[in-house]
């Protein structure tokens, strides 16, 4: 894979990129937060199962 070192290649990408609006940012933040909470909840449930099973 060849990495372009020309400045024009980078400026073209920066021209295509745009700053997200508040609505898009908040939607992405909510989805990411829900994913983090879901993964944490799954880890906590696995922790509870693993701490209860050895004592049974």
TrEMBL record:
Signal peptide (UniProt feature, chain positions): none
Question: Keywords assigned by UniProt?
Answer: Cell membrane, Membrane, Protein transport, Translocation, Transmembrane, Transmembrane helix, Transport
Q: Name one GO molecular function term.
A: protein transmembrane transporter activity
Protein transport listed as a keyword: yes
Q: Name one GO biological process term.
A: intracellular protein transmembrane transport
Where are its TM segments located?
Answer: 30-53
Report the superkingdom from the record. Answer: Archaea
Localization per Swiss-Prot or TrEMBL? Cell membrane; Endomembrane system
Q: Which GO terms describe its cellular component?
A: endomembrane system; plasma membrane
How does the record classify its membrane topology?
A: Single-pass membrane protein
Q: Which family does it belong to?
A: Belongs to the SecE/SEC61-gamma family.
Q: What biological function has been recorded for the protein in this entry?
A: Essential subunit of the Sec protein translocation channel SecYEG. Clamps together the 2 halves of SecY. May contact the channel plug during translocation.
Assembly, per entry: Component of the Sec protein translocase complex. Heterotrimer consisting of SecY (alpha), SecG (beta) and SecE (gamma) subunits. The heterotrimers can form oligomers, although 1 heterotrimer is thought to be able to translocate proteins. Interacts with the ribosome. May interact with SecDF, and other proteins may be involved.
- State what protein this is by name: Protein translocase subunit SecE
Originating species = Halanaeroarchaeum sulfurireducens
As recorded in Swiss-Prot or TrEMBL, the protein's gene is named secE
